[in-house]
């Protein structure tokens, strides 16, 4: 399973788009995004930590304000970075593959200092997801995910058929 990690303040829309594009490619059961995947009434913390433990790869959506948020709020969660870092820390603790996804205009992470999670993130090879190259970027991300998780297979045609117009629109975007 692919786990999408993102800040609500800056990366939520990109994460939602990436979610739809990856679902179109691999199927809904292969992608976890908390806002879509957690059932109403479920224990949010348990559901997230269970999904991190079960995922094979975590895509960490890095928006323009990610580094400043991490530096300012490490561990406090006042702006949503607390859960972002908790998910990342759990992924590193469970030895999951973590891939930073840098959004348009974001430079390579350069966090240095006593903060373990940001330091680990700054050493990881990243991928890009830009608004100017959505089709090429998501195709490349999907190719890389298959390399990391060889069992992932494309369900583009059958899944979009089940999902209706939105799935077909996403497929048209990817062609």
Going by helix content, strand content and strand pairing, the class is: alpha/beta
Largest sheet: 5 strands, parallel
- Separation of the first and last Cα atoms: 24 Å
Number of helices: 9
Low-confidence stretches: 75-80, 158-162
User: Based on DSSP secondary structure assignment, what is the total number of beta strands?
Assistant: 5
Order of helices and strands: EHEHHEHHEHEHHH
State the strand order across the main sheet: 2-1-3-4-5
Shape: globular
- How large is the share of residues in beta strands? 5-15%
Q: Would you tell me the overall average pLDDT?
A: 85
Describe the structure.
There is one protein chain. This protein is α/β, with parallel strands linked by helices. The protein has nine helices and five strands; from the N terminus they run E-H-E-H-H-E-H-H-E-H-E-H-H-H. It has helices at residues 12-26, 34-37, 44-54, 66-73, 81-93, 116-122, 134-148, 156-163, 165-174, and strands at 2-5, 31-32, 57-62, 97-103, 127-129. The protein has a five-stranded parallel beta sheet with strand order 2-1-3-4-5, with helices on both faces. Strand 4 (97-103), helix 6 (116-122) and strand 5 (127-129) form a beta-alpha-beta unit. Helix 1 (12-26) packs across helix 9 (165-174) and helix 8 packs antiparallel against helix 9. Mean pLDDT is 85; it is low at 75-80 and 158-162.
